[in-house]
Amino acid sequence: MKKEMVSQYQLKGFWRRYSYYFLPAIAVVAVVGLFILMMPQFIKFFEVRGKIKEKEEEARSLEEKLEGLKKINAALLKEDVDKATKLLPNEKKVAEVFLNLRILSEEEELFLDELMVNPGLIATESAGVEEVIFETTVYGALENIRKFLGRMDFIGPILSFEDLALEYFEEEEMWGARLSFLDFYSFKKYPYRTISPLPEISESLGEVKNKMKEFKSPYLEVVSGAVPSELPPLPVGRGDIFSLP
Amino acid sequence: MLEKINLLPVKKPASPREKKIRFWAQIISLAALGIYVVVLLSFSSSWLYLKKKDEGLDKRIDNLRRQIESYRETEGLLRESVGKLEGLAEILGQRPDFQKVFADLEKLSLEGVEIGRVRAEKGGFFRIEGTAENSFILDDLTEVILAHEDFQEATFSSVTKNKEGQLDFILKLQRPFGP
After folding, report:
1. Predicted ipTM?
2. Of A31, A78, A198, which is closest to B75 when you measure between CB atoms?
3. Alpha helices, DSSP H, located in B13-134
4. Does the pLDDT value for residue B66 go beyond 90?
5. Looking at residue A188, what is its pLDDT?
6. Which of A40, A75, A118, A123 fits A131 for a cystine, CB–CB 3.0-4.6 Å?
């Protein structure tokens, strides 16, 4: 009984003494406690906020991409790709190169010697271009050789000279031009990517695009009937290899 | 009669300064709690707003991707077109201009000099084999070459007298920018 009274007195005393600190203590405990409890939520909040910024950026770039795609004329683009593919094919066009040279040499009244082919070195890894080395010799008048070389600069598939040796043959009274040149083809695949922005045709690429018009394939012109010639059509093999002859 | 005696320590009345401190402590605590509640409420409303925005963005991105997917073929064509143009630009940029070789040969044409063989290589290197009537004409040829800005490092690697008394020469040249 006595003990109970003492403890009651003690409690009352304690309360009287410290009641003023009760509210501040609750405030501190609430602020600190809740802050600790809410910490993971705060972290997540800022994470989500960061992600939203990224998503907004992504949505903006996707919108720009969609706008860009809507503006593209697919038919014209297909034409451009076809033109570019004629200059830079996806596969080796050795026979077409040979026939182009044959037509050109005939038109320039030159004699075309045998054509040697050494396949395939990688010309530019980044652009995915591989090259085939050709070697041949043409004989005739120097002026005709000059014209022939000038026209070679504008045939498709595109060619690039590596080496030229001009020699005058006194007995035959004509010049011979030993040519070493490269033919190119593109082995690069162009994967479709939803997220990445659309590639742009820069000013310099625009110039190349305009320049493409200057190139011609004498062989294709003959095949299409634009230029008459006695050249045989390019052999393409049998359509159905199992059919009876 | 028993006297009630309080044996507990007598509580001293608080000084005015102490009272003031206690009063402000209460006020500040209340204010802190209030601010904290406001912060919590605004945090939770921002949290809800963010979640909604996040969901909305996900839907928007999905929708855009689906629309872009329908232009898949066009995008493939564009990538192929740009890739090919880049390849062509690279080839055209590195392609030597052998038309220049002929123009250069004309620069070297001189009476009394006969050019028999010319070899032009990528990088602007020329090797010219020819015959000159005499050494004075070879001097003239050297002057012609040196006077031209298009040539550099011109050297005669061989000059020999042939049966007709003319000079067979081998001349090596380099053009600074090509062919």
Report:
1. 0.73
2. A198
3. 16-69, 72-94, 99-107
4. yes
5. 74
6. A123
Q: In the prediction, which pLDDT does A75 show? A: 92
**List of chain A residues whose C-beta atoms are within 8 Å of the C-beta of residue B102:** 146, 149
What is the arithmetic mean of pLDDT over B47-57? 93
Dist CA B32 CA B42 (whole Å)? 15
| Type of residue found at A99 | L
- From A101's Cα to the closest Cα of chain B, the distance in A is 16
Structure confidence at residue A241 (pLDDT):
47
Beta-carbon count within 10 A of A89 CB: 19
Of A26, A59, A209, the CB nearest to B60: A59
Alpha-carbon B31 to chain mean position = 57
Rounded to 10 deg, the angle between the A203-211 and B72-94 helix axes is 80
Q: pTM, whole model, 2 decimals?
A: 0.69
In the structure, what pLDDT confidence band is assigned to residue A245 with cuts at 50, 70 and 90?
very low
CA distance A134 to chain B (A): 15
The pLDDT of residue B137 is above 80: yes
Kindly give the residue spans of alpha helices, DSSP state H, lying in chain A.
Answer: 2-18, 22-71, 74-87, 94-107, 142-152, 203-211, 218-224
> Of A1-10, A158-167, B47-56, B126-135, where does mean pLDDT reach its minimum?
A1-10
Put simply, the answer to whether A58 touches B61 (Cβ < 8 Å) is yes
pLDDT at B173 over 60: yes
Chain A residue nearest residue B13, CA to CA: A17
- Give the minimum alpha-carbon distance from A189 to chain B in angstroms, rounded to a whole number: 8
Q: Do residues A86 and A97 lie in contact, with contact meaning Cβ atoms separated by under 8 Å?
A: no
Which run of H or E residues covers position B139?
helix B135-147
Task: Tell me which chain B residues have a C-beta less than 8 angstroms from the C-beta of A63.
Answer: 64
For testing the chain A interface, which of B84, B117, B127, B175 should be mutated: the one with the most A CBs within 10 Å?
Answer: B84
Residue among B62, B157, B27 at smallest CA distance from A24: B27
**Who among A56, A168, A208 is closest to B116 (CB)?**
A168
Question: In sequence order, which residues have a C-beta less than 8 Å from that of residue A77 and are 6 or more positions away?
Answer: B74, B77, B78, B81
B148 to chain A, minimum CA–CA distance in Å?
Answer: 22
**Which residues does B98 contact at the CB level (< 8 Å), separation at least 6?**
A149, A153, A161, A164, B120, B179
